[in-house]
Design goal:
2 domains; single chain; TIM Barrel; 8-stranded parallel beta sheet; 22 helices; globular; alpha/beta
Length: 543
């Protein structure tokens, strides 16, 4: 029955019709010998199409061809002529935005280890508002060959982790298919970098390939929850002691839907997902908007310390999309009051992607990554805590320039979801929430998921990581630096008008170490700090 459903799936209509017309033409020739020459042309056409379609169904190089035999060739034909018709069929390349097709093509090329160079110089509008660039040095350094890494783990961490500066951002099994998870984790294993599980938990498909894992614990506590949905210390400890899990990440909020909780549409809650997550089938799997294990900043510090102890001393941190600044300053005050600090914080930008979220949340709620990252970095500096906490970031990071810019703003490392999805075969069809992903990446339909050849895509994931870090090394050397953590705000410029340029150092003013403790010079920041309390997330209200 499942085989029949595969054969007669609407996406295979072109192949099915080609086979049927080929057989019909053969039968017609058998019964009408006098018309054999007339029927030879359609016989060759439909025979050729059927051969192409069967080849598409069996090949493993292109996921979209496996799911859409014959029809998907139209996409590749359009791609071949794209430079000539880009202005008419595709969005324009106005500011180098992550939505641009050139940037997505760059990921594909690096994943396939193809030439990623461009002719005729930049086509970006360098004299338009918002254009940004990096300053190079007249005395460039030799390009570092060894991949850049950082050590994550504060003074209370017993098992610090040596992490790549470029890792796979949070994407859950459930949102992504089993084969997509296998390919991503296999690539992480091959390339020596980390794979964030997303809040869906540590699934068997994450474990199968053995790549380093950052286990994200969301408000639904998937993988470590009681039947009632509360946090279970016993289940957490049993899983967290797995040596494949290198770090624990508490998810406070994510960029695409901060303050909303995760959403896995009912169409994607299979029996397997239901078992792994411990949730009922037939209903949207919605995580609570906030955690039940803690309700104040001080309680959250206690929870961090608890997770660190239960995991055997592994690095424990949290991820958030910055909301009200006073609430993050409340967390800083709780760190100072308790003496407990997270080993790391990941700042997610509101521009980050998701499989499903309300439009208003995606477009208008939360702080963009750069502003959020810079505030969190400055807050930790101003509280005298920055040297105890490492900072990661995520939010449409695709290229080495994106990484260099983020590291100048305060990041120690960068995560990417979109880039690694492209390397697995995502074509950004925007059907993630429907379970009808054309490339088998964001689906729980096993027949769609089979389109991903895990062994091939594993290599592509590792290739994309390696090629991006190689370019980062070249940018770092061109700036006269030895490590990307040496990038400073003054290395970057933004055009704010046709005749005016401003340094990032002026766009993002820096705080001095422990400035909050002495009294911040900026009256607005000083007022926000005074309103923050370690005993509550909501600010102290003036009477």
């Amino acid at each position: 029955m499942r085989l029949l459903k595969l054969i007669f799936a609407p996406r295979h209509a072109a192949l099915l019709f080609s086979i049927l017309f080929f057989i019909g033409t053969l039968l017609a020739m058998a019964y009408h010998h006098d018309r054999a020459l007339l029927l030879a042309i359609p016989l060759l056409i439909f025979g050729g199409l059927a051969t192409i379609g069967l080849g598409d169904l069996l090949q493993k190089r292109h996921s979209v061809l496996r799911n859409y035999p014959i029809l998907a060739h139209l996409r590749f034909m359009i791609e071949e002529i794209r430079p000539e018709i880009r202005q008419y069929l595709f969005e324009s390349e106005t500011d180098g935005s992550p939505f641009s097709r050139d940037r997505r093509a760059l990921v594909y090329q690096r994943a396939k280890m193809q030439l990623d160079k461009r002719p005729f110089g930049t086509q970006l509008p360098v004299y338009s508002d918002g254009f940004e660039w990096m300053l190079h040095s007249l005395s460039p350094r030799p390009v570092v060959k060894k991949p850049f890494r950082i050590t994550i783990g504060g003074p209370d961490c017993k098992q610090p982790y040596s992490a790549s500066v470029f890792n796979i951002s949070a994407m859950s099994f459930g949102s992504l298919s089993a084969n997509a998870i296998r390919a991503l984790n296999g690539g992480a294993k091959l390339g020596g970098f980390a794979h964030d599980t997303g809040e869906g938990g540590f699934s068997p498909y994450h474990a199968e390939k053995g790549g380093d894992i950052i286990w994200e614990i969301g408000s639904g506590y998937f993988g470590c929850r009681t039947p009632e949905g509360a946090f279970s210390s016993e289940k957490f400890s049993a899983a967290a002691l797995n040596p494949q899990i290198k770090m624990i990440e508490i998810k406070l909020s994510q960029g695409a839907k901060p303050g909303h909780g995760g959403v896995l549409p009912a169409a994607k809650v299979t029996e397997e997902i239901s078992t792994i997550r411990g949730v009922p089938m037939g209903r949207d799997c919605i995580s609570p908007a906030c955690h039940s294990a803690f309700s104040t900043p001080l309680e959250m510090m206690e929870f961090i310390m608890k997770l660190r102890d239960l995991s055997g001393g592994k690095p424990v941190g949290f991820k958030l999309c910055l909301g009200q600044p006073v609430e993050f300053l409340s967390l800083c005050k709780a760190m100072l009051a308790s003496g407990v600090t997270p080993d790391f914080i990941v700042v997610d930008g509101k521009e980050g992607g998701t499989g499903a979220a309300p439009l208003e949340f995606m477009d208008h709620l939360g702080t963009p990554m750069r502003e959020g990252l810079n505030f969190v970095h400055n807050a930790l500096v101003g509280a005298g805590l920055r040297d105890r906490v490492k900072l990661g970031c995520s939010g449409k990071i695709l290229t080495a320039f994106d990484m260099a810019r983020a590291m100048a703003l305060g990041a120690d490392w960068c995560n990417s979801a979109r880039g690694f999805m492209f390397s697995v075969g995502c074509i950004q069809s925007l059907s993630c929430h429907t379970d009808n992903c054309p490339t088998g990446v964001a689906t729980q339909n096993p027949w769609r998921g089979r389109a991903i050849d895990v062994s091939d895509k594993t290599v592509r994931v590792a290739n994309f990581h390696a090629a991006t870090l190689q370019c980062l090394a070249e940018l770092t050397a061109a700036a006269g630096l030895d490590h990307p953590n040496q990038f400073e705000l003054d290395h970057f410029r933004r055009r704010v008008s046709e005749s005016s340029v401003i340094s990032f150092a002026d766009l993002f003013p820096a705080l001095q170490r422990a400035e909050f403790l002495r009294g911040a010079e900026d009256a607005r920041l000083r007022a926000i700090w005074d309103r923050a309390s370690p005993e509550r997330f909501s600010p102290v209200r003036e009477v």
